[in-house]
């Protein structure tokens, strides 16, 4: 539990520093690993073949939407109820995904 708390504190520090320091924000976007390690002293170790991408979403005049990576069913452990939902078309799964990932978009789409 303590380690997760420390990770949460590191993430909070990164975000608050990016909000208040435009130079740090620029460095975070251009070279996120170095920027994070220099700020926090934490070591960033990415899985092999992965890169860290930081997008600046601080412009309040824009609504942002990220396209998440498509989940691999083999990598997800689902319970019986979740398997039945997916087998039946998965509408609830999609609704939950959209609502959680894009709450601001949900509010502006009018049908």
TrEMBL record:
Identification of the protein by name: Putative ribosomally synthesized peptide
Matching NCBIfam families: leader_NHLP
Record-linked InterPro entries: CN_Hdrase_a/SCN_Hdrase_g_sf, TOMM_pelo
Domain of life, per lineage: Bacteria
MF term (GO), any: catalytic activity
SUPFAM superfamilies, per database record: Nitrile hydratase alpha chain
